[in-house]
Specification:
The protein has one domain. 61% of the residues lie in helices and 0% in strands. The protein has 2 helices and no strands. The protein is flat. By secondary structure, the chain is mostly helical.
């Protein structure tokens, strides 16, 4: 359902779309979140 939500809501905006390759696991999510936090800290 979550995947469907993101695919559908972008269709409502002109020239915007989303494409999913796959879903990751919890460990991949943690790594991505930490990566984003570190980028934020470098740029504030």
């Amino acid at each position: 359902e979550i995947r469907e939500f993101f695919e559908v809501y972008k269709r409502l905006e002109p020239r915007k779309w989303v494409k999913f390759k796959s879903w990751g696991n919890a460990e991949e999510a943690k790594k991505l979140i930490n990566y984003a936090i570190n980028l934020y800290r470098k740029n504030i």
